[in-house]
Design a protein that fits this description.
Radius of gyration: 17 Å
Order of helices and strands: HHHEHHEEH
Largest sheet: 3 strands, mixed
Structural class: mainly alpha
Strand order of the largest sheet: 1-2-3
Number of helices: 6
């Protein structure tokens, strides 16, 4: 019998995988110039947001796999602003970035489904957050795309693009 907790985890995994379509919609119909427009000082462009989401997702997958496989692993934080400042996202091939995001999300979704329910209670030590469980990270990164999608919609509206 499947418990409510198990059902909730399966629902979260499905929502995590659904982030693929959400991220693709962020870039849909935009030119290279529009993708790389910063609406205001100190803001990120849509392409920078996409690069950030890809970076964080790749890091998240590594963290989740370490929690699932290792006993209380140390999960080192990173400076997302330095990634944007020093790794020029306007030079990346957006299609490749989106394809990598898709492949990583699908890969992660598949292996998460192979885990037993108790694996989601396993913990790691994040250098900024402290103890986090696999379930915590899954929930954080499930919401991450939607969090940034609201900024993308604002940027698209400011450029007069729906």
């Amino acid at each position: 019998m499947t418990s409510a907790s198990d059902t909730a985890i399966l629902h979260t995994i499905a929502s995590y995988e659904a982030g693929i379509a959400t991220l693709r919609s962020a870039a849909a119909g935009l030119t290279h110039a529009q993708l790389n427009t910063r609406i205001g000082p100190g803001t990120w462009s849509i392409q920078e947001i996409i690069a950030h989401i890809l970076d964080s997702d790749l890091i998240a997958t590594h963290r989740m796999r370490r929690i699932a496989a290792e006993d209380l692993p140390l999960l080192v934080s990173y400076d997302e602003n330095l990634f944007i400042a020093k790794l020029p996202s306007d030079k990346i091939d957006l299609a490749t970035a989106l394809d990598l995001f898709d492949a990583n999300r699908r890969f992660t979704e598949q292996w998460l489904r192979t885990l037993t329910p108790d694996a989601f209670a396993r913990e790691g030590i994040h250098t900024q957050r402290g103890k986090v469980t696999l379930k915590d990270l899954l929930e954080i990164y499930t919401k991450h795309v939607d969090h940034h999608q609201s900024f993308v919609q604002g940027k698209r509206a400011a450029m007069g693009v729906r």
